Amino acid sequence: MKIAIVYGGTRAHGNTEMLTEQAVKDLHVDRIFLKEYRIQPIEDLRHTEEGFHDIDDDYNSVIDRVLEADVLVFATPIYWYGMSGFMKNFVDRWSQTLRDSNRPRFREQMKGKTGYVIAVGGDQPLLKGLPLVLQFQHIFEFFGTQYGGYVLGEGNRPGAILEDREAMRKAELLNAVLKERV
Amino acid sequence: MKIAIVYGGTRAHGNTEMLTEQAVKDLHVDRIFLKEYRIQPIEDLRHTEEGFHDIDDDYNSVIDRVLEADVLVFATPIYWYGMSGFMKNFVDRWSQTLRDSNRPRFREQMKGKTGYVIAVGGDQPLLKGLPLVLQFQHIFEFFGTQYGGYVLGEGNRPGAILEDREAMRKAELLNAVLKERV
Amino acid sequence: MKIAIVYGGTRAHGNTEMLTEQAVKDLHVDRIFLKEYRIQPIEDLRHTEEGFHDIDDDYNSVIDRVLEADVLVFATPIYWYGMSGFMKNFVDRWSQTLRDSNRPRFREQMKGKTGYVIAVGGDQPLLKGLPLVLQFQHIFEFFGTQYGGYVLGEGNRPGAILEDREAMRKAELLNAVLKERV
Amino acid sequence: MKIAIVYGGTRAHGNTEMLTEQAVKDLHVDRIFLKEYRIQPIEDLRHTEEGFHDIDDDYNSVIDRVLEADVLVFATPIYWYGMSGFMKNFVDRWSQTLRDSNRPRFREQMKGKTGYVIAVGGDQPLLKGLPLVLQFQHIFEFFGTQYGGYVLGEGNRPGAILEDREAMRKAELLNAVLKERV
To answer: What InterPro entries does UniProt report for this protein, alphabetically (chains A, B, C, D) (predicted)?
Structure first.
């Protein structure tokens, strides 16, 4: 079983990363730090005669790593009660991949995976992070991806997540679940 | 009373735009098409010693137009059950403005405004657009911005929104409300 | 096409009723005022050897009227951000009907229907009524019932709903839709 | 610190009870099994000249036990993606207590408390239990009650909750938190 983490944060070793690393401790994972790649926002050309054209950026190499994994962990700081713009831009591009003749099995491949959401925010994330949880519910449902679960943690200043014992413990539990699946 | 529309779409005269223009018919509005501006994603430097530094892009000129308005209409196509990446990147940058010594009254100014959300999607937007509505509930609550209302419309191919009579009618109603406020 | 309204309110001619009657104006409908019937709360006996036993109350006669309809309108005042206890007790009993050998096609029959939710509350119903909308999303999904739509109105003192022009207009629109279906 | 559990279930030693008892292990708590009391549904008389009149049932004795507690745990099986009708009927009656001259400090007293929600369901409770979590968010917000947290567990047949390790572990964590507060 292959695991890929899609990191949406911009701060190295941030709270979201700490929490997520707890969840994948001792596991071999592919870490995708979206911030390190050049990924253009989508331009909606679904309804033009020519359709989408190739974009010269890093998106394709990233989506191919995503497609290789069996388990996807979407790990994002909660920015304004949603996923980061970095992550949203990446997700938006999936609309293009859905029509990419080089990846005709995209939808079917996503269906076979299990997705997790890990998100850390500073303002009542257990409640105000729920729109993000619901958004991923619809995203996963679109593909038929199994929603494995989610961990919402609280933290603002660097390292604060370590004091959210409940979130850290949930990450440990997720770690145990993932280890069993390997 | 000044109205500004923050457009998050990428297609000119798209469904979201059609629906939104119905809501502001015969009104003087400032239309901000985010796609036409260069707006960098946020880099979270809140916790660094130096804090945020100035970004050389169009963000500041756009946020200043937003701040001049009394009524804000966030108009976005529903991409993957949320606002577009273009719009999310713009909203994310507000975290920087919250600490911008050139705009010390940002939070207070936002508090005095009324916000609306207009969003169009192709997959059961009246239900699957609700995470977006809830997200803006938290965003507006953060500032104390009044949530004036929202209009969710259904449409996929160009012009389809015109057949969503209920959404078009809601936009007309919003138009009447806005005209009374002018 | 037969329409049944399941009324969860306790006040005659209340705001919810006014709004709902606008939606079914000039249509022949079966009005079920739950308050007028004796409906026991469910007792969960799914896991006992004997299973559920017949309850001597009005539930069965009411559920049979529900089953005769093609369109179901669940009309409830928003009590504490949810449907009324009267309506919840009625819905809870569906678990018993799911195992009722006298109504073996219950699930299948519900699947063929279209459901609407009409709810009126006094505290920001367009936002705080959304948990109720989401709850019915799951309920309808369980059966495969089509979610036709929902109307959330604002009102507290008697007759106040008439001043919520947006809600009244949405009810008119729903009326037009229902008339076309007849 | 006093803890009261408001139990909405109908099955003795059901899954919800097992999960909740884990959360209050070794603590002195007042257990209120709503099913054991006679509590009438509310009749909305807020707008009549006479207002509410006394109901001859067990409600008042139960609400007084609730008011004596500092921590309230609302523990309910998830019936049709919401709290049980038993619990909803009880909550609905709060509208009457808000106008009860014998309990003039009701709202203020509720404000000083911390509330928890524990709920067990058989159909994807981590996702489909969220409307219930959101509903309590609004309920607690109404009073200013602090939302301490929630535990959603999965289980259908008797005892199944014990196999939901994640939920049981969350209940243990809650137990530790509550013990620290005592």
So the answer is: Flavoprotein-like_sf, FMN_Rdtase-like_dom, ISF_SsuE-like
